[in-house]
Amino acid sequence: MPRILVFGAGGVGCIYAYILHKAGASVTAVCRTNYNVAKTKGITVRSKIFGRQHFQPTVVKTVQEALQHGPFDYLLVCSKAFPGTAELIKDAVTDRHTAIVLAQNGIGLEEDYVKLYPENTIISGVVYLPVTQVDQGVVEHGPLERFEIGTFPADAGEQAKSQCRGLSELFKAGGGSAPLFDDIQPLRWIKVAVNAAWNPTTALTMCDDANYLRSSPQAEPLIRGIMKEVSTVAAAAGYPDAITHEVIERDLARPKSRLETGGKEPSMLTDIREGRSLEVEAIVGNTLRLGQRYGVKTPYLEMLYALAMARSFALRPDERWKPIARHDSDDARP
Ligand SMILES: NC(=O)c1ccc[n+]([C@@H]2O[C@H](COP(=O)([O-])OP(=O)(O)OC[C@H]3O[C@@H](n4cnc5c(N)ncnc54)[C@H](OP(=O)(O)O)[C@@H]3O)[C@@H](O)[C@H]2O)c1
């Protein structure tokens, strides 16, 4: 029976824990705020695909505490992608054994893990899973479940490929879907183009996607412009065919179809409403830094990055700006 550690038992973590538990794996979940509820009452899933389900994984408070339930065959990173996350799982990674699975939005996330865990398989995943933790230990999941996975790097050796196949089979056995890709990066680029376009624009304007599109004639061209900019970076990084004209049109068709019925909130807008930190670095920062690496100009991303980082900064009372003592000379402007 494979042993699995889920780090970050929020929306995505709870659904993936459920699928793997159903597949017969031994699942341990590192929980933080929802620890007490998950430990005493288990996890409840209300899903358009899986129905109403309840299950009890092994629940621990810390990665160190999880160790007694290892060694782990797979460690799924399902927390939000923030700088420094790779360090947090260190104690539960067994060299040359634990496959680290990234179930997070963003681009270029793998590099930190390769540096810290050079002997381990890295499986990079693109998550299509509309899910929210509506109460502690209770998650609501919509009608889509698809976890696109591939090794990082794409040409990893046979052991890594075999671990990746193993994860795909486990998902299938648990009623889920984790299709394998020889190279996952083009799919990551598509997702990050969509996220970079919609997340900061809606979060900064506090408009859902349909309201954003309705707001001015410039709204839609800006979304196209951001996606094209990400596409230029992807091309410079070696993926010229990832973000096609069809991808952009398909992405825009969804919010356009909601113009009359009401829009959807991208996750960064929800994070702002809830006062949570934003995944700006993983989605916008890493994309523009890759642009810099390959000599691509990214004026839209640079502006979004500065504004979204400032918005994120303002949400965190611990780091918020404090008034600086004023001097009379400050007013000595012409
Ligand atoms: N939800 C979706 O619909 C969706 C869809 C596609 C992709 N994604 C991506 O999937 C990833 C996960 O998203 P999510 O919506 O599942 O996020 P989420 O609901 O906020 O869950 C993240 C979980 O990680 C926990 N966590 C964070 N740091 C931790 C730490 N140091 N120790 C223990 N637990 C920790 C959080 O605990 P606390 O509750 O204590 O903060 C929370 O339970 C993100 O990259 C997101 O962009 C999400």
Automatic annotation (TrEMBL):
BP GO annotations: pantothenate biosynthetic process
EC number(s) given by UniProt: 1.1.1.169
Keywords, comma-separated and alphabetical: NADP, Oxidoreductase
Chemical reaction(s) catalysed: (R)-pantoate + NADP(+) = 2-dehydropantoate + NADPH + H(+)
Domain of life of the organism encoding this protein: Eukaryota
Domain Ketopantoate reductase N-terminal per the UniProt entry, residue ranges: 4-153
EC class: oxidoreductase
Molecular function in Gene Ontology: 2-dehydropantoate 2-reductase activity
One GO CC term on file: cytoplasm
Domain Ketopantoate reductase C-terminal: 183-310
Signal peptide feature range: none
UniProt similarity note: Belongs to the ketopantoate reductase family.
Described purpose of this protein according to its UniProt entry: Catalyzes the NADPH-dependent reduction of ketopantoate into pantoic acid.
Protein name: 2-dehydropantoate 2-reductase
